Amino acid sequence: MPPRLRPEFGGTRSVVKARHALLTPESHERITQPGWSDCEFVTLISPDLGAKFAMSLVEAQGSLTAPAAMAGIARFLFCLEGDVALDGVRIPAEGFAFCPPDDKREIALSKNARLVLFEWRFVAQDEVPGPLSGRLGDIAGQPLRGDDRLRVQKMLPVDPGFDCEFNVMTFDPGASLAYVEVHFMEHGLLFLDGGGIYRLDEDWMPVTEGDAIWMGPHVPQWFGALGREPSRYLIYKNYNRSPLSPR
Fold it and tell me: Which domains does the chain have, with CATH numbers?
């Protein structure tokens, strides 16, 4: 049996390469951010990695109100635990919200709330969509390419005004993507449940709940679910954009 990877002995499953990364919980570094009092950030993906967006886990140690995003920056948040409120509208666990650029509404976090926060410079078409919020449980899963073992829940409307997609993918045990995808969009991904094997370029990596992945443009990518329970992940991609648009 191979030796167990122990963080205190320099072991980690995290892998960071030029075009993709796997970020695993034993390598998380918690930091503070200006304006987010009583809050810890684990910034998993950022432009310093090569991405055009930022993805962070946010953990509230006490109740707080978050500052507005920088000018031109859009946000998407997905609540993992506890409660978040957007101008008084409650967003429970597995609730979500899209905040368009220059949105001044207050985001309030309850004590011990945990969420995933995405931020990116919005690429506007004709009209910037307004804010929205909802619950994942209210969105029916749709088979992906006719495979009812692989279902997608789209949290944003199918509207060319959105420059992104945020989806939750559910794989029954043994289900997989139909083929190795290669495209100019990039992804940020967080495993919510289960796990399996992810292929990125020529790397084949075991993944499980709590793992995060960055996939840069044109990286060959594929996932197959393993185990006895369904596997789910939350995934972002830049969308409705020309490959020549500023990103």
Answer: 28-136 (2.60.120.10), 139-238 (2.60.120.10)
